[in-house]
């Protein structure tokens, strides 16, 4: 499954095909859902903010699709993925190995965000995780992620939009179907204030519509 960075494409269709082939050990429905993700989640936008040779921490990495993409494209020198879900991490480990560069990443099961590795990273990513965290715990979750960002490092935050109503509803229905939760979207303006107050500046702010859904991407840099 290994590929050279020169031949790697971040085009949505190519990413979808890559993930479909990579996760061939998963049951068919899950494999199809993983391979559909690039059409909904803007991995192509996230990738643009990850410098070459970066050391990356993916908070709430799930089945490790982002790290697998970054490994296969030879973008990162080192990665750590953390999640509460042990089954997802087992799948992430297998996917990373199948890129041929599994030795560059480790996966760790955590019981809470305070258990994130006590290390500093060039980039810390949090992709579609915070809306699953109870509202009262969100500020602390973000604070723990920010503590792992090294000097001049980046915090890449991706979640789902609060509006327009129909895109928000699409997200709610999706999570109701797939995770059994009626989630409450992240209040992005409040999040921006929290991250800036922690000593970061907002470098990029994008709302990215995909199919019925709306993504919010925020890129912060430690000052
Ligand atoms: C929608 S999935 C996103 C997975 C991955 N980031 C992606 O974009 O493909 C949300 C993930 O957040 C994880 N999660 C939820 N609460 C968490 C917590 N307190 N600590 C770590 N991970 C958590 C879930 O287990 C799940 O894997």
UniProtKB/TrEMBL annotation:
<keyword id="KW-0808">Transferase</keyword>
<dbReference type="Pfam" id="PF13489">
    <property type="entry name" value="Methyltransf_23"/>
</dbReference>
<dbReference type="InterPro" id="IPR029063">
    <property type="entry name" value="SAM-dependent_MTases_sf"/>
</dbReference>
<dbReference type="GO" id="GO:0032259">
    <property type="term" value="P:methylation"/>
</dbReference>
<keyword id="KW-0949">S-adenosyl-L-methionine</keyword>
<protein>
    <submittedName>
        <fullName>Class I SAM-dependent methyltransferase</fullName>
    </submittedName>
</protein>
<keyword id="KW-0489">Methyltransferase</keyword>
<dbReference type="GO" id="GO:0008168">
    <property type="term" value="F:methyltransferase activity"/>
</dbReference>
């Amino acid at each position: 499954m290994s590929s050279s960075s020169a031949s790697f494409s971040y085009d949505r269709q190519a990413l979808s095909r890559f993930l479909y082939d990579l996760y061939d050990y998963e049951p068919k429905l899950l494999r199809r859902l993983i391979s559909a993700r690039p059409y909904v989640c803007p991995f192509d936008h996230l990738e643009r903010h990850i410098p070459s040779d970066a050391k990356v921490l993916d908070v709430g990495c799930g089945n490790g699709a982002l790290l697998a993409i970054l490994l296969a494209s030879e973008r990162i020198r080192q990665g750590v993925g953390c999640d509460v879900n042990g089954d997802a991490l087992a799948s992430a480990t297998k996917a990373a190995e199948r890129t041929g560069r599994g030795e560059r990443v480790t996966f760790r099961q955590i019981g809470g965000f305070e258990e994130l590795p006590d290390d500093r990273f060039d980039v810390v990513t949090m992709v579609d995780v915070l809306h699953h965290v109870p509202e009262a715990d969100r500020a602390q979750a973000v604070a723990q992620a920010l503590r792992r960002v090294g000097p001049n490092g980046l915090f890449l935050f991706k979640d789902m939009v609060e509006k327009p109503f129909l895109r928000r509803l699409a997200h709610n229905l999706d999570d109701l179907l797939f995770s059994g939760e009626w989630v409450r979207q992240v209040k992005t303006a409040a999040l921006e204030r929290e991250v800036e107050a922690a000593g970061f500046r907002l470098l990029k702010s994008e709302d990215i519509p995909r199919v019925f859904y709306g993504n919010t991407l925020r890129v912060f840099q430690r000052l």
